[in-house]
Specification:
Layout: H1 2-24, H2 31-41, H3 48-65, H4 72-87, H5 89-92, H6 94-97, E1 98-100, E2 103-104, H7 106-112, H8 114-132
Antiparallel strand pairs: 1-2
Length: 135
């Protein structure tokens, strides 16, 4: 079981760090989606280049946190916060996320697949809590 949990931790790290570093470097295929969402939410508060780099580094940090078992709870809540942010386009930009009722666009599929990351994170966090409690 420990090998599965470590594989899950490394998998979460790879996805978050890789996607985050692409954003921080300004080469992410998701950049246009992030920019559209930024324009309707945070544009009065920051510049997009600063936000994109910060958001990318935040994703990298989430990935790194999953590699440190003692920081599992922080990693989990950071992932939940991130998950809420990345679900926003399904409501705020429905024309980008949905082609019709219950039919996601490619972008919508990209967003929905994050349910797998959430379930993996829930499994790791629960396993960590049980191990910590000696169960």
């Amino acid at each position: 079981m420990k090998q599965i949990i470590w594989f899950s931790r490394v998998s979460i790290f790879v996805v978050y760090f890789w996607f985050g570093i692409l954003k921080a470097l300004g080469v992410s295929p998701a950049e246009s989606l992030v920019h559209q969402l930024f324009n309707i939410t945070l544009s009065p508060l920051s510049s997009f280049p600063f936000f994109l780099i910060s958001f990318g580094l935040f994703e990298c940090l989430i990935g790194i946190l999953w590699l440190i078992p003692k920081l599992t709870n922080i990693a989990y809540y950071a992932l939940i916060f991130h998950f809420i942010l990345i679900l926003t386009p399904t409501i705020a930009l429905p024309e980008v996320a949905w082609s019709s009722l219950f039919t996601p666009t490619f972008v919508g599929q990209y967003i929905i697949k994050n349910l797998l990351l959430l379930s993996c994170a829930m499994l790791v966090a629960r396993s960590y809590r049980l191990e910590k409690d000696g169960i």
